[in-house]
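Internal ticket - ligand job 368, S-adenosylmethionine:
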Amino acid sequence: MAQRVTAAASLKTAAAGSAAPVEPGARAEAAARPGDAGWPREGPLVDQFGRVVRKLRISVTDRCNFRCVYCMPEDVRFMPAEVHLTFDEIERVVRIMAPLGVRKLRLTGGEPLLRPGLPDLVARLAAVPGIESVSMTTNGFFLAQQARALKQAGLVGINISLDTLDRDRFIQIARRDYLQRVLEGIRAAEEAGFEAVKINCVVMRGVNEHEIETFLRWARERPFIVRFIEFMPLDGDNIWERRMVFSAEEILDIARTIGEVVPEDGDPSEPARRYRFADGRGTFGIIASVTRPFCAHCDRVRLTADGKIRNCLFALEEHDLRDLLRGGASDEEIEQAIRRAVWVKWAGHLINMPEFVKPARTMHAIGG
Ligand code: SAM
Ligand code: SF4
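stdout (structure tokens):
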């Protein structure tokens, strides 16, 4: 325990420096917290700000074999396995949501590949009428064994998390000596035929920002899209501080030292803003949840491993489906519970406002 606290404290010290500047629009995000009056009983899944839900992130487990400092504490307590939704229950929720307009699914966790038989779930969800794609976010550890089966099952996209190419820093961040396994997993994903594998890199000031240039140069040589993610206050050791957020603008400044950077027209509902190098070599993305919130275009909700709908990563209220699923509720009753959960979604997260309250769940239990 003492060692863990020391490690977390040293990350904070390393981050000493300026706080990431926030775009003016970031604070203008309305703090509106609407009630549930008038939630629509039919039609698309819509909230009170006109946003329509098209994507569902499904956490299949809160368990993980890594202990990333930005995601969970070392001595984390996982949920008992019996509270995890079964594959039948997950498929039922998806069959209810697809006719309401949900088109894209992403499996996540915890580490999704710790859940036995995941390719079966992928195949079942990909076969649901209306579902256009099933993707996954993974730490890559098990991909060497499973990439091929996942591809055959119909998985279309893989995001692999990798914050550093340095073994010691990897151990500092993930608290496990698994860099080689992740690199083998990335290779396996390529060999299995996944196109444009995305590498998710959480950037923390004083920890790994020195590697942004290395990652960008790597992505210019290889068919990867590196996506830099601003550090969000969802960690388990309370190490997050605004000054640890290495901002989108600072990341772009580093990219510009390599070559001319051109923003790409992208889908505004995608969390990552895409950029390419003008010389045609390399594409990268930045997920700037803190300094450039994209809440106004959000089209996602989340289903936690224990069956709660969360309408935002930072939501403080959850909407339980598990008791409905296990208590004999009809599809209609479950649909209405989902509609209500979407209707009461806030206008935006409050990270940049004094009213911000960190959710009780850390990232691994929400499903990133
Ligand atoms: N275990 C899988 C993995 O690591 O890819 C999936 C779950 S993980 C919670 C999903 C994503 O959330 C990862 O890319 C991870 O880097 C990111 N993440 C976790 N905690 C974060 C935080 N506090 N701020 C920003 N991104 C975070
Ligand atoms: Fe595990 Fe992913 Fe969280 Fe790291 S980010 S501890 S790999 S769930």
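Auto-summary: The pocket of iron/sulfur cluster (ligand 2) is lined by residues 64, 66-68, 71-72, 109-111, 139, 161, 363-364 (CB under 6 Å). Confidence is low (pLDDT under 50) at residues 1-9, 21-30.
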